[in-house]
Amino acid sequence: MKILKNSILSIAFFTLAFYLAEVLRRHTGDENNSSLIFIVAIVLVARFTDGYWYGIAASALSVFVVNYSFMYPFSHFTMRVEGYPVVAISFFAASVTVSAVTTRMRKETAQNERLYKEQARIKLEVEKGMMRENLLRAISHDLRTPLTGIIGAGSVIYENHDTLTVEETEHLAENIITDAQWLINMVENLLSVTRTTEYGAKLNRTNEIFEEIVAMPVQKVKARYPDCKIFVEVPEEIMLVPMDGLLIRQVLLNLLENAVQHSGDRENIRVKLYRDGDMAVCEVRDHGKGLSCENIDKLIEDVVMNKDSVSDATRGMGLGLSVCKSIIKAHGGFLEAENAEDGGAVFKFGLKMEEIPDYEQQ
User: Fold this and answer.
1) Scanning 57, 173, 189, 198, which has its CA 20 to 30 A from the CA of 24?
2) Contact 33, 87 (CB under 8 A)
3) Distance (Å, rounded) from C-alpha 128 to C-alpha 44?
């Protein structure tokens, strides 16, 4: 197959060179610089074919064709005219040299591309390894704390059930339920990040209506935190987005839970959907204490790397944001964080939209 492809390319470039040189000869009516046209053809043959032999063959054939068709006496091959042997040898040597240099450059370029891809693959593996290490560091504290709380509360109820009041028992049971919910959310995040960081993992993309994806996480957070007020603003137009709906729901769930747990605001948390060019954007805004760092990567690093310096109020935040970043990156979207001018934090992510034909909107 390669031989056929290389042969067709060589013949095509050589034929084109011959046609252009013939047009130039007819226009001038005499010898001209047709050899330069064939050198260009030789460069193209060497560039787009495999190996040296096609360029060398094109060089040898060019010497004959230029002598036969484009040097006096026309339509005759001769080496008897003074200077012709030197011209032929020089032309062949120059052609072979140009062909060899072009072929080598092409091979070096291909080798450099392979090296670049290999370096990118190694870099990706290193980044994934660092991410796994950071995630393990992040969840080591997050898993121990709720498990310790569950064991402690359960032990108190088991050992002192005769002396505990109803209120005390209810309080301990509520703590057990809260910590168990944390563990469930942790498992969901771990499953999500495993799907998106595993090498070669594929997303289960389908075209989803963005506002329908938002409904479930909002309802879930409201059920977990009945005292929390969440307001949702959606556009009039339908935003159809290719996505893995399960993972994007996890992103929004993480951002909402972070807003509820870490902002100090449970009165005015807002979710806004809007279109920005060809991107569908989801914005989660609170009116709490804001962020110490507005760079999402630095924010994740600070929470994950400095576990000992933060309170239990930040439990799960580092892993949650890491999961969000991994999922959005796998979708080819963006994730940003910033402080609002009038107070509070704003997290937003964007995914590329699928255009809806006019007849589907009517």
Assistant:
1) 57
2) no
3) 42
d(CA 210, CA 281): 9
Domain boundaries, the chain: 2-116, 203-362
User: 225 burial class (0-12, 13-18, 19+ CB within 10 angstroms)?
Assistant: middle
Cβ atoms of residues 285 and 152 within 8 Å = no
Domain 203-362: give its CATH superfamily. Histidine kinase-like ATPase, C-terminal domain (3.30.565.10)
Contacts of 263 (CB under 8 A, 6+ apart): 269, 286, 287, 288, 289, 290, 344, 345
CB-based contacts of 192, cutoff 8 Å, min separation 6: 246, 247, 250, 323, 326, 327
Task: Give every CB contact of residue 92 below 8 A, 6+ residues apart in sequence.
Answer: 59, 60, 63
Confidence (pTM) = 0.53
200 vs 202: CA distance, rounded Å: 6
Instruction: Give the β-pairing of 269-276 and 230-233.
Output: parallel
Q: What is the pLDDT along the chain (362 residues), one digit of tens a residue?
A: 778 887 888 888 888 888 888 887 777 766 667 777 888 888 888 877 777 777 778 878 887 887 777 777 777 777 766 666 766 677 778 777 877 777 788 788 888 888 888 888 888 788 767 766 766 666 665 677 778 889 999 999 989 988 889 999 998 998 898 788 778 777 776 676 666 655 445 678 899 999 999 988 898 888 888 889 999 999 988 899 999 888 898 889 889 988 888 888 888 999 999 999 999 999 999 999 888 777 777 776 655 545 444 444 445 555 678 788 888 988 899 999 999 888 899 999 999 997 665 544 44
Nearest to 174 by CA among 234, 238, 224: 224
Please list, residue by residue across 92-127, b when 16 or more beta carbons sit within 10 angstroms of its beta carbon and e when fewer do: beebbebbeebbeeeeeeeeeeeeeeeeeeeeeeee
